[in-house]
Design goal:
With 658 residues, the protein is of the alpha/beta class. It contains 31 helices and 11 strands.
Length: 658
Amino acid sequence: MQISVEKNWEKKLRADAAKARKRLGVDNLLFLSSQVMTPPLFQEIADDLLRTVNVQVQKMDAKDIASLAELRGFTREILGKLGIHVPAPAPRPFKRPDLRQDVAYACAFFGTDAQAFRETVIENAVLAVVFQAGGSAKRETIVDRAALSLGLTSNQRVQTTSAIDRMLQDGRLSGKNGTVALDATAKDNWASVRALQEEERSTLLAQLDALLAPHVKNAATRADAVDTVMLDLGALWLDTGRSTSNALADTEASGLAHDPLRDRLRHLDATLDTLGIIDKGRRDKLLRELSALAAGSSFGRALVAGEVFINLVSLKSPQIFRAFGGGKDFSVILDTSVAMPLLCSLLYGAADQDFFVAAKHVYDQLVAHCATMILPRDYLEEVASHLRDAYVLYRDIVDIDPDLRGSKNAFVAHYVALRAAEGEDKIGSYSSYLAAFGLTASMARGDREVVRDLLMNKLRGRFTEYGIQTVAPSASLSSKKRAEIALAYAMQARDDLRREPILVRHDVNTLGWLLDCASDPQIAHVICTWDRLHPYVQKHEEAEWDVLDPLAFGDVLSLAAPGSEDVKIVSPIVVALMLSADAEKRGAAVWDMLVKLENENLHDAHLRKAARAFKQSWVKKTANEQRSRNLQGAWEAWKETHLAGPSKLETAANKKLK
């Protein structure tokens, strides 16, 4: 037996196995570790050690030790050694929110198998009701309270009855005369979980107090502020869980699934304002810090995880979620809206921006799950076109307005944000930044299509370095025709889903290919995108693939982490970043439109000066009615009024020459 608390358990295991064999002649080693050892990696190392040093290795890691404590009923003793008091179970008044929180925490704490999560959630609800009642309760009371807590419909109540019968048969519950009771071990486990829950909650309250201390000096006032903010954070965790599960269950709503988080964070922002933190800049920063604290706390992550499972009890779960428990592979198609910010984040870091943080998060989780990541060639072409435009169209305006960090061109947005955060001395010039992606100034001066094709080759290599395959989807004529009809119907039904013909062709190729791939039952396909067209088509075509935005997808992959990876929830962080960037995104939208209207004319200094003045005026006038005005008409009128003399003639000449 060898005991280790080292984080690098792989290296320690190999070294100890070799020493045990060489010095003691041991051929069977039990390795105890305070870390969590990922089963596939442990088995790979164990097989190698048996082959190379002839030692049979078994493991008992942190999860195994915890499971043994639960099974043998000595969790109370372990927590006592850690200074955490575990009170004996005592009846408490029934409160639906409290019970739901207990169920959520227990689902995360005890683990929930993806294949049988509905069964596990209902069992935990039954156990929570009995524990909350003091260790025993009437059968009909258990059914009523569990169903109410989980929001089960009348025809789902039978699942609760079945769960009680199942646990009575396997000995987890006992009962007579219509009363159901927990055994001593179950009582001990649930009491320990409740004690840990309270311990983590106390730790979080202390962290909240420290975070608010610079802003709320008076201790008594700050104590009230901590309690108030904690209420907002509690609602934020629940909304995060619901948003994630709703995005999983209803693909068309996935683009709107995070709206409750926006509302919740706006409410938290109003709370901070009420507390006297009135400077908007300081409040935005604190809001992001509170979101990060909420997302990073053990207490909050457990509640979010459990809430996702609870909500999915009554919702249709997606292909990808079923794949976790079914041994199926899954293949993820990245579209342009995800691939561009992801590449920027991989090369330079996420720059504390919403789309970039979300893209890096989902990428990290996909790597942890060993998922196949695919970038269709058509979307690679779009990335290359954006990279070329980033230099040709934006190079003369990229330095004149910080709002450009909200640009729809990811390369522009990322550079402006990086430069603001780290300074040009560290990040380098715009040309050097773009050169890392494969674009040089001399190359950019070439023919548009030639430049695009050259960049595609360079970008393909960049994506390959990060494990992202570029493929050229090939679809049958019948599938392409079906995809064309589906897209045409979607764009006719909703104006906000319309796009340029070339982008439609790209989507037709990808969706046609997916229609052909759907016949393979061993692979679950997922389109990872921010685009609302794909969810609409998926739902209305009842397609055999999933569509998820990177925010919901990254969080749910984290909840189903395959081993030692810690659960990481980023939805509150990203939504907080989105809120604080609302104003600059409105300004960037004007610049993006002006670039589209004027093309390369903005290289003219007079026109750039006029454009900047117009942008400031436009944003101010349309702050509360952005969609009600004609931007192109307003810009043309502005030029007529504010551009005079040579610069106006030069602009007209440039247009004529072009």
